[in-house]
Structures are given as structure tokens and as C-alpha cells.
Please model this.
Amino acid sequence: MIRSILFFLFLSVALCSAQDYTFLGNYTAHTLSGSKLTVKTSNRPLTLDFYVDGVIRVNVGQSRPIPLQLTPLREQPIELEESEEALVARFPTGRVKITKAPVRLQVFRKDGSVVTSDDPAFGHGWSGNEVRCWKILQADHSFYGLGEKSGQVNKRGQFFSNWNADTPAYRNDSDPLYCGIPFFSGIQGNKAFGIFFANSTRSTYNLGAGNKRLYSFGADGGSMTYYIFCGPSMKQVIESYSELTGRMPMPPKWSLGYQQCRWSYFPEYEVRDIAREFRQRKIPADVLYFDIHYMDAYKVFTWHRERFPNPVQLLSDLHSEGFKTVTIIDPGVKVEADYEMYEEGVANDYFLKYLDGELFQGQVWPGWCHFPDFRKFATRAWWGSKNAKLRAMGVDGFWNDMNEPALWGKEMPFVVEGIKSLHNVFALLMAQATFEGLIDDQPNLRPFLVTRAGWAGIQRYAAVWTGDNSASYDDLAMSIRTNIGLGLSGVPFVGCDVGGFIGKPDPELYLRWMQAASLSPFMRSHTVYDTPDQEPWSFGEETERLCREAIERRYRLMPLLYAELYRAHETGLPLYRPLWLNFPEDNTAHEADYQHQFMIGEQLLAAPVINAGQRFQKVYLPEGHWFEPATGAIHQGGRPVLVEAPLKTLPLFYREGSIIPTREVQQYVDEAPLTQLDLTVVPGADGRSEVILDDGVTLNSPTERLLFTQTQGKKLQISLGNGPRASQLKALRVRIAGLSARAQVRFQGQTVAREGEWLRLPAQDGELSW
Ligand code: MIG
Model:
């Protein structure tokens, strides 16, 4: 009896340890050449590469390439000290300590604060093909990022996996979603750090789930290769990460306009009707979408002959009314003899295969399909050229869907060649194919692409929208958090299906969603196949009027939005961001209660109403004075304030020091050149603001930067430069928040006349003082 119990115990321990991990062993030797330190151990080698600005690449064991071309960073030579117990590598902003027995990593900043530290027992380990890393969790760690995640903005205490998945009607706890990104960041002791896990196989992240000792990341296979970003500010972390994985090239300016979609507008007259409604009702709009019904039998790169007999004419007519168009492009290519895409793909070996060489077939909208192997250059070039051909017909942009890849039955079999490392980057490579094909065709035209799935670096090719949400207030709130999370993951151009995709919003929900989304970088209304109409005029007159106002506000703010998008392009920082990115020291700004407030860049704060029937809003305003344009009130920040939020109002605030540029409403972006620019100045702090003028469509368009600087609470420097676009300006109007009606205002020493709250200035450089 006892013997059999002992035997059983022995067996279970043996079984269990066979599945457990082997950890990095003891130090045996090291080599240093410049910025590369290799540490040999009793099992796998550890290699560290040091780069400027506190970026460190860590690799354990064999290193496998990823399909994303990373920006080569500038190497940072280190100073190495060795002792009995450890190696210490010093670089200008910190040091790495590598203990010898066993080999474990600790990264410190120069001030002694910990960036990240291996768990002393575990550190790095592996089990079969699985690789994993365990770091010490502190009580005050918070976590962010990982791409598209629907839950809290702070991901502390949660477990996540990244395996891109088609997840219609996802909820707050659904995971994974469409667009996972293996980059996360954290804040601990008020300092930020980031980790980019450069491994495209299915990865999982324990950010303190079910324990208070560790956070960890790992993957089913591939290599343990990751980059550490030392911060210490979150802005630095995101800038470094986006420098490494690539920044967003400027998209066409029209893609900041309001976009209208449904599954699907067809036939042709329905598309024309929608376009006409927008113009007749004077609701600004820039883009109309063609969902899957525009194709013949869902065959990609075809048109349905009865529904769209003359697409070239239709597209050109829409252009003349100021509309751009975007077509959906799915990756599945229908298996059908004589269909060009199928024949060319098979003949040239462009499609994915099983390990035994048989062409893989999976079912999607067209029926049985082959799927392009976007790892191959030739496949990408072919696919890209088909997009370019479609653009030559007059299509302006592309919408990549079903690219997780999604299939009926969800998954491709794992015996499709290389799918375990390809799955997560399928969409990235498809987007790369599209982007590069468009650039090959017209090197100077800015491509527009919006995608559902993606991976690290997707920002180089596409905007990301958050897939099949539902028409509920919960989803409205979720869309704010998810888009903030994507921005913190290096993707600045993000948005959701306004109104909710699945289900039917009531008028109030639709309106509140329009208001919240009127400041999201990408703004598109969309709904599923069998729902009632979901255009801004589909919910009665009052809702139509208030939706128009929300969209008009976006068009008024276009000079600001475009300048902020431009900054995102230059820095990689999200334009749509949590309060705490701008106010890292403010504890209240980090509270979950306020995670549905967001800022656009540095100046503008929005606190959308996300509950039914709510007519007041409690808003947390960080330190300083805030101007509320809806009422003209100036609020003292550093505390929550209660403001009125009737149906017509999106609670919106301009930070002190801001100079908010606006213009007259247009029916579509760049309908007319900018001849009058309005500036709202909020005194109380020094501030600086820019307006970017360019042609909005080409990549090498000269950029004019109009610069506005306010100082000493009573001066505004205006510097327009003398570029051709600035020269078209006829007038500047300036409004100074809180200025008394009797105050003397001078421009270049001359008294300025008032028109109500506005001061009218000539469009020229100079100094305004009050
Ligand atoms: O299986 O193209 O998320 O936006 O309307 C659904 C039809 C396929 C999913 C996308 C949605 C789109 C729909 N697509």
C-alpha cells in the first residue's frame, strides 16, 4: 500500500517535472565586442545588444528572424565590470546586472530605479519549443498595450494571448481579438518601461494574473528575443518602440474626414443615393465604402456586373461630388477555373500549401479558397499590383478584412506550412503587399488602407479599426479603451464602427457614439448586413441635427486633427491618448474611473457621455485652468468638476496654454483652400501650437508649418511663414478665453477691432498682446 502510494507520488513528480521548464543555467564565459555582450551558460547562451536611448535587445538561445524589417538602431558601446558574482554593463542612462549563478538579468536606470528584473528563481526558461521569461512584479506595477484588447486600459492582473482571431460581438473579457501586438509597457515607481517580444508565434502574457510575484511573457515556439525600453517616461517608451518598428507614414488628409459604411451599399443607385443625401442634408462626409457585395460571387478584384455595371463612371461621379471610395479586400481567392486571380496564383505558386505540398483550401465568403503566401516577395508584388489596378479605376483606398486569417471553422490546420509563425503576421504582410504595391505604382501618392488584423509595425501600412463590436453603451465605452490601448501599442490611426456593428442602436446611443467618435483618429459608421439603416439621418430629425453638429465639430477642428496626426507620424505618439500620458505625475489621471476620458495631443480633453439618459458629466481635469468651449466657462483643474451634458453636448475642454486652430465647416476635407484660420487661446501657461499645410495627398508635398506661441499670459507670436498655402490666408481670427470686454488688444502695436468674442487680424506674422 505505502509502496504504491510512494510510487504514485514519484510518478506524478516525474511526470510533472518533464513538462516543467528548464531555466537559464550558470555563467561559464562571456565575450564583449562594442555593444554586443554574449554570456555563455551551462545551457543556452544569453546575448545582449545595447542601443542608444536605453534600448536593449535580449536573446536567449537560438535567434530566429521575424518578418518585420526593424529599423537599425544606433549601437551603444558599454563599459563592462566583472566580479565573482556578476557582470555589470554600464551605458549612459543605466546599467544591466547579470548575476552568474544562475544567470539572471536586472536592468536599472541611472538613478537606481529598476526598469525590469528577472525573477531570481526563474528568469528565462523553456519547455520543448515553448520559451518564456519571468520578471518580478511589484505591488505598484501597472501594464498597458498588447494591441487590441477590450478590457481595462490598465491590464494589471490579467492574462492575455496573441493569436489574431475573428471575434464578432466581443466583450470586455474576450481575448484574443483581431489585432494582437506583442508589445507591452508598464509603470512602476512612477517610471515607465516597455517590452517588445519579437516573436510571431502564439504568445501569452501573464501581467500579474492569479499571482502577486511575477509577470511573464512567452510563446509556443520561436525564439526568446525581446527589446527592453528603459523610458523613464511613457512617451519615450512609445517613441523608442515606434522608431524600432516603424512610424506611420502620412495618410491622405481625406481619411481624417467622416466615413460612411454598411454591409453593403448596393446596387449602384443606392451608393449614389447615400452620396446625394449627405450633400443635400449638408452633413460633411469624405468616404463611402463598398463591402463584399460589390464583387462578383465575392471574388476579390472583380465587380458584380449587374450591381455595378460601370464602376469607373460611378467612381468618377462620386469624385466630382467630393467623395472618396474604399473597397473591401479579403485574402481568400476563390478556387474557380478561369478566374484570373486563381489561375495566376496557381500558375505562379503564390498560395499557401500543406507541409506535403498540396495547396491549402479553406472556406470563406467565396466558398473554397486558396490563400496568398504573403511571405513570398513575388506574391506580395502580385497582390500589390492588383490593388494598384483597382486604384487606377478610381478606388481611393482599401479595407483589409478577414485577415487574421479568418475562415469558416476559425483555424487553418497547423500542418499548413509555417502557419504557426505566419498566422499572427498574415495581416501585416498582406498590408505590406498592398502598401508597397500602391507605392510601386505611384511612388508619391499616399496610400490609404484600413485593416482589421495586424501585428507590431502595422502602423507603417494601415489604420486599424476594431472589428465587429455591438450597438451597446458598453461597447461605446469599450471602443474608447480599446483605441487608447492601440495607441499605446504604437498604432496612432485607430477607430471603431460608430453606432456598433452588430445590433441596432437607439437614437441616443447613436448620437453619443457620434460625439465620442467625432474626435477619434479614424471615424467611420458601419453596420452589419441585416440591420435597419444606420446613416446620420436614420434616427429622426433631432438626432440628424445633432449628429451633423458632431461631425461639423470634427471638420472645424480639422486643422488641429491634421497637425496632431502629423505629430503622430513624426513621433509615433498616439494623438488619441489617456490623460496620464500628458500628466504622468497626476495619480487621479491614472484612476480607472477616468479611463473613458481622453486627450487629443496635448491640448484638448474630451469626456464623452457613455451612459443612457445621462445629462451631466463628472469630468476630472488635471492641474491648471481649462476652457470649456460649449459654455465659455473656465474651470479650475486638479479636481473633478460637474458639467452639463445635454444631448447636444460632447464635454470638451481646452487646456491652459493651448492655442486651438479651427476653420469653417466644409462638406469634405479640402473642399476649399484655407482662407481664414481661427485660433482659440487659453491663457494661463506658455504654449505652442502648429498648423500643418500641405497638399494632403502626396508624400513629398512641401510642408508649411504655421507656428503659434503664447507667453507670459498676454502675448501670442504668430509665424505663418511665406509658403504658397499660408499666402492664401486672408484673415486670422483670435479668441482669448476669459478676456474682459474692456481689455485692450494690440497686434504689432495697433489696436485690434472686436467682432463679439473674436478679434480679426490680418494674415501676417506678428505679435498679439493683451
Ligand atoms: O464575416 O464583409 O468585420 O466590417 O462588414 C464577416 C462583411 C465579414 C467582417 C467585418 C465587417 C464586414 C463583414 N466582415
Remarks:
- The two ends are 95 Å apart (CA to CA).
